[in-house]
């Protein structure tokens, strides 16, 4: 799907906000509800978070589990 120029600007701003959030907290998550009825979840994990996972020799599953925990923690506290 091709975005018009205004949609491209908005998409770029959202992408940058997600990167900023990931760099600040270690992980950012975005959920998109699709017209087909399903949802797409995207996690952005900071380089520092990944390097920590490597240093701790985490499996991919452990990395994903920790990323989910970091991403949803703010939602739990509200």
- In angstroms, what is the radius of gyration? 15 Å
What is the general shape? globular
What is the domain tally? Answer: 1
> What is the first-to-last residue Cα distance?
35 Å
Helix count, DSSP H or I runs of 4 or more residues: 3
Largest sheet data? 2 strands, antiparallel
- Oligomerization status of the protein chains: single chain
Helix content: 55-70%
Tell me what portion of residues adopts beta-strand conformation. 15-25%
Structural class: alpha+beta
Mean pLDDT: 81
Order of helices and strands: HEEHH
Physical arrangement of strands within the biggest beta sheet: 1-2
Number of strands: 2
Low-confidence stretches: none
């Amino acid at each position: 799907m091709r975005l018009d120029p205004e949609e491209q600007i908005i998409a770029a701003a959202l992408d940058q906000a997600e990167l900023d959030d990931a760099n600040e907290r270690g992980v950012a998550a975005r959920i998109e509800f699709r017209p087909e009825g399903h949802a797409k979840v995207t996690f952005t994990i900071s380089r520092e978070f990944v390097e920590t996972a490597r240093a701790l020799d985490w499996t991919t599953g452990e990395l994903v589990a920790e990323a989910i925990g970091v991403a949803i923690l703010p939602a739990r506290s509200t």
